[in-house]
Design brief:
Distance between the termini: 39 Å
Strand order of the largest sheet: 1-3-2
Structural class: mainly alpha
Radius of gyration: 29 Å
Strand content: 5-15%
Helix content: 55-70%
Largest sheet: 3 strands, parallel
Order of helices and strands: HEHEHEHHHHH
């Protein structure tokens, strides 16, 4: 039987920890990605010392054995449990699938993410931080006397939200974006209705952003379904 230094190190480490009373009967789960490797390591854990004594105090279990033994038996030592599992699986949102800018995604989703992120980052950086727009300050003046400070805070917040839309693994930020666009449109309509008739006004901009958010929300749902 082929024994490598790593295999022997694993066996000796497991044997030492299992005999440590302060560990309270630990269980080792050894996951391999090949059947031959699983069998090889399993054989190493069955080895004995030259005097016939077991190296590992409790014989290992293979994944094809009844798992009920793990909870049904009360042993002095812990378990060594072998599982052979292909590592080529894909994770989805329900088991921490992390989809970001560099993960596989449709061109429509990628374009929507980039466009939405650009809108929020630009709106937060330029009219609120780099050169504060009188229109922005006039709108925020309806919220209180600290509208200058609020403009700066909102600028950083909008930039952060843009990065979230670009890299988020979740779908809910796109729904939040839709709600934000509708709320902002209502706020402008209430306090500065004259802006709704200007060129590239909040109606046209918010409608475009909402449409991109709907596309991104639908596309992320397709990605999640394809990775189930």
């Amino acid at each position: 039987m082929l024994c490598t230094v790593k295999s022997i190190t694993m066996v000796c480490f497991a044997a030492r920890v299992m005999r440590e009373t302060t560990m309270q009967n630990p269980t080792f789960v050894i996951i391999t990605d090949r059947t031959d490797l699983d069998g090889q390591l399993f054989g190493v854990f069955l080895c004995k010392w030259s005097n016939g004594a077991e190296i590992v105090p409790q014989p290992p279990l293979s994944s094809n054995l009844c798992c009920c033994a793990l909870s049904a038996c009360q042993l002095r030592w812990g378990w060594v449990y072998f599982v052979c599992k292909s590592l080529s699986f894909r994770l989805n949102q329900s088991n921490f699938y992390m989809m970001n800018l560099f993960a596989p995604q449709s061109p429509a989703l990628l374009a929507s993410r980039i466009a939405l992120a650009f809108v929020w980052i630009y709106q937060g950086a330029v009219p609120k931080l780099v050169c504060q727009s009188p229109v922005e300050l006039g709108l925020l003046a309806h919220l209180g006397p600290l509208y200058g400070f609020m403009c700066s805070v909102m600028g950083y917040g909008e930039m952060a939200f843009g990065l979230l839309l670009l890299l988020t693994p979740w779908r809910w930020p796109f729904l939040l974006n839709i709600a934000a666009m509708l709320s902002l449109l209502g706020f402008v309509s209430l306090h500065e209705p004259g802006l709704l008739t200007e060129a590239f006004n909040p109606v046209s901009l918010n409608a475009a952003v909402i449409a991109l958010s709907v596309i991104a929300w639908l596309e992320t749902g397709k990605v999640s379904a394809s990775n189930q």
